[in-house]
Here is the input.
Amino acid sequence: MATSIAPVQTRSERPTSFEPADFDIPTGLEVNWKHTPVRRLAALFADEPGDDGAVTIDLESVEALLTPAEDVVVDVFRPEDRVAAVAFSRAPGRLTVQVPEGEQVAETITIPIVGSDAASRGFGHIVIEALPGSRATIILEHTGSAQYAQDVEILVRENAHLTVVSVQDWDDDAVHLASHQARVEDAGFLRHFVITFGGSIVRVNPSVELAGDGAEGELYGLAFADDGQHFESQVYLHHKGPRTRGDVLYKGALQGTTARTVWIGDVLIGAAATGTDSYEANRNLILTTGARADSIPNLEIETGDIAGAGHASATGRFDDEQLFYLQARGIPEEEARRLVVLGFLAEIIQRIDDAPLQARLHAAVEAELARGAAA
Here is the structure.
């Protein structure tokens, strides 16, 4: 009699490997792929070299912070799916950005990542390390078009303060699958954003380990999906050290009959993570009939000695009372709807400590609303 093997459901128990062959090509039945349109991802499942020039990175803005790859120890990233393993093995090199110890970098560091065309396949591996006592904000800005698999490794050392913003403003035919993995050490602080407006399929999965005593992690996301777009994030926050604090908030707006977003949030409070305070939430606003938002929060607690923990999820349409309140004060319905959406998404945008990027993101939301009104 054959013995049945239960599939791995818990995020912390998923196998990892640097070898693509150790992962089967996804069929869409796997727990971590069942919400993803895998039939459209064959190019990124193939363990084959990428195309030259598929993706270019302008390094001028980070030249002073570039560190030879051999000087940065890779001790965080562990691929947990086939695409991440292929990207790890096929990336032409590692871009390593290291914030010097004690350095307070006042200006935002922007790394432009530009795809050449939708038929090209590219792979990338980026390492960002904030050395002890340093502080910086780094933006990964994705534009153009490509089929791009990306691994991002983030190390926040003792007492360092790092903000990483990943902006996906691709053309509408781009495919982008990324795994972001981070570790935060004693009294370190990481604020991580996933902001997605453009692309056909965009799946950015952040995984953060709060390893040190008093480590903090804030994970925020914003997605605005139109017809034909699939935006997905599978978020994992692991409280490993004592007295850690975590805050997860992702928001999505959807318009168009085939717009789709997927958010899966996993929080693990480990046995040694005493005194932890953690909360995760996902909110989605459906603007048109046919749009669909899947939202799945999960919380595991292995110790009873915590300060607090919780999770929440809500998906709905416009609040008629909000619209009535605005219209009763002389605001036309279309303008009232615009104000509601802007207010809903502004909570995420305002947490980015970069005024020019805030202005650009507000403009992007306005452009999405205008596109929806014209449809």
Notes: The mean pLDDT is 91. The helical segments are 42-45, 82-90, 320-327, 333-349, 355-374. The radius of gyration is 20 Å.
